[in-house]
């Protein structure tokens, strides 16, 4: 792959990550539905597992509300149709009725489909001290 093509693919993945962040802040379930792979498995900071249906339900029912999400750094790694984003930032909101604020690292594995674009297949969220 040429450097120009590689940079374009990296930029597409960064744009997808930023669309995800915007959808999370807005509680935009339709946008999240497009960005999350149907087979999504996400592991939260407490070690719990969630599916795409779980995540969409939490945003739809407003049991997960992200009020503020500030990106400190974002790195991407792409190999073919697989990409990984490494997000570090602060997140503030409510979850299950309880307010939270934390500095978190999100590691997301994305797969690229020619028709659907980049979609998250797996994610891990961990607290950063």
Automatic annotation (TrEMBL):
List residues of the DUF4440 domain. Answer: 13-120
Q: Where are the transmembrane segments?
A: none
Identify the domain of life. Answer: Bacteria
InterPro entries in UniProt: DUF4440 (IPR027843), NTF2-like_dom_sf (IPR032710)
The name of this protein is Nuclear transport factor 2 family protein
